[in-house]
Fold each of these.
Amino acid sequence: MDAQAEAARATVGRALALASDMGENRVAALAREFAAIALSLTGDPAGAEQQLFQGIRILERQGESGMRSNLIADLAHVLHQLDRPSEALQVALSSRAIAARDDLFAQVRWRGAAARSLALQGEVAEAGRLAAEAVEIATPTDVLSMRADAHLDQAAVAATAGHRDQARQAAEAALVLYRAKGNRPGAARAEAAAYRLVTS
C-alpha cells in the first residue's frame, strides 16, 4: 500500500517460498491471497490471478468454502483489471453462491465486481442496486480499503450509467478512505477516476 513495488514483490517471493514448504493447507492458501493483493497493488493483475487460482484450487481440494469465497471475490476484481468483465461476473456469482451471510468481505466484494460487469452489459439498475448494497454493507466496518473499493466500484457503475455527479462523489469518497488508510495505489486510482469525471 506504500507503493514500494520492488520490496513488495521480493516479500511476496519469500512468502510463497515459505508457503510451498508447508504443503497444501489453509495457511498456504492465505499466503497466496495476500500475495495476490500485493501483486494487484503493484500493477501485476496477471500474477495476482495466478496466485488466487492456485489458492482457490487448494481450498477446493480441502472442501473449504469460507476463505474460498473471499479469494473468488478477489479474483473477480482482478479479472476486471484484466478487462475480462464477462468472466468476472461469472466468478463473482460463484463467490455469492458459497459466501456466508455474515462474511462481510465476500458480500461486499462479489457485489462490487458483479455490479461493474452488469453495468457494462447495460443492466444499470441492477448494477446500481448491487453497488449501493456493497457500500451499505462496508460502511459500518473499519476496513478502510474495502470501504474505499466499494465506493470506487460504485463510481465505475455510475460513470458507465452516465451519472457523472454521482460517480465523482463516489470516487472522491473512495479517495478520502484510501488516503486515511495510507493506500497510495488505491488513492491514485480514485484520484484518476475523479479527475477524468471532472475534465472529460
Amino acid sequence: MLLILTLAICAPRSNTARLRWGIVVGLGCSMVGDFLLMLPHDLFLPGLLAFLAAHVCYLVAFTAECRLPARLGPFLGWGAFGGVILVVLWPKVPAGLHAPVTIYTTVILLMVAQAQGRALKLWTASALVLAIGATLFVLSDTLLALNRFGYPLPASRVLVLTPYFAAQWLIAVSLSVQGPASVGD
C-alpha cells in the first residue's frame, strides 16, 4: 500500500486538486485500515471506520468534475445490489454492528456508483480505470463480508486481497492515465 500511495502522490499534476488529494488521503486511510485489521486483536470496527473514511475521501474526490449523482443508473443498480447483500448478511451480522455495516455499505456503494457514473459521463481512460478500481474494491469488500459473517470462502485471503490491491492500484494509477477512452482499434 505504501508503494501504491507513493504512485498516487507522484502522479502528474494534471488532475484537479480535489481528485488528487481525495485519492491520496483515501489511500492513506486505507493503509490505516489495513494496519488495524492486521493486528492480532479484533479491531474490526476501527478498521471499518478507517475504510469508511477512505470511501468518503474517494467519494469527495470523484465529485471533483461531476456532481453527485454523475449518472442515475449506477446508483439504482448498486442500491439494489446493496439491498440484496444486506438481506443476505443481516441475520449473521452481530446486532452491535448493524448500524456501522449499514453506513459502510451505503458509503462504499455511493462511491462505486459515483465512480461508474463519472466514467459514463466523462468517458476518459482515467475515469474508466478509476471506475474499474472502485468496482474491484466493492468485489473485495463483498467477499470479505460474506467470509466474515458466516459464509466461509475457500482461499478467502487470496479472493479478498487480490481484487483489493488491484482496486487500490487502479484508483491510484488513474491519476496518471491520460487520453480519451478507447473501445478498440
Amino acid sequence: MKHSKVIILSLALALSFAPSARTQTSHQREERLIRPGESIGQIHLGTNGGSDLKKLRQPDLIDNYTSHSVRVWISKKDGRTDTLFIKTVSNDALGVQPVDGVSVELIRVTSPWYRTKGGLSTGSTFAQIHREFPDARPVDGDGKLFGDSKRGIVFEFARSPSTDSPCSAVMVHPRGEQRVANAEEVENLLREGHRP
C-alpha cells in the first residue's frame, strides 16, 4: 500500500511539471495564427521588423529599393510550392525608431499552415471568408483581391471568386490602410529578384 502511494505521488508530481497537451496546442496555434492588422505567425507588422526577420532563415529572393525592400521565402513540400512575401520600409525613411531598423508593412502567405482564429487559410472558400469577414470588399480592378481595410487583411483568389472559389493567398497589413502584393508581383520577383 505504501509503495502504491509513492508511485501515485510521483506520477502526480511528474504530470504537474509536464506541459499539457492544451498548452502545446496553444503555442502551436500561436505560431500559425494570422492576426489581421498585426501579424502572421512570428512576423509582426510595425517598426521592430528587423528583430522578427532575424527569426527567419535568409530569404530566397530580395529586391532592395531606395527606402524599402521586398523579400520572398520559398517552401516546397508535399508537391506544393508556397511563398512568404514580406515588404519592409526603412525606419529612417518613415522617421520612426529605431532609425537603423525596418518596419514590416505587408506580410503575404500562400501556405495553408497559417490560419485565422476562426480557422481560415489559403484553400478556404469565398463563402467561408465572407462569413468571418463580412465587410471584405474588392480592392483591385479585376476582383481577385478582397480585403477588410479596417481589420487589416486581404484574401487573394486566382480569378474573380464565386461562392466556392478557394483563396490562394492571405495578406496582413496595418489597419486602415490597403497594401497588397498580388500573385503577379510575386511571380515577377521570383523571375527577376536577386538572390542574397
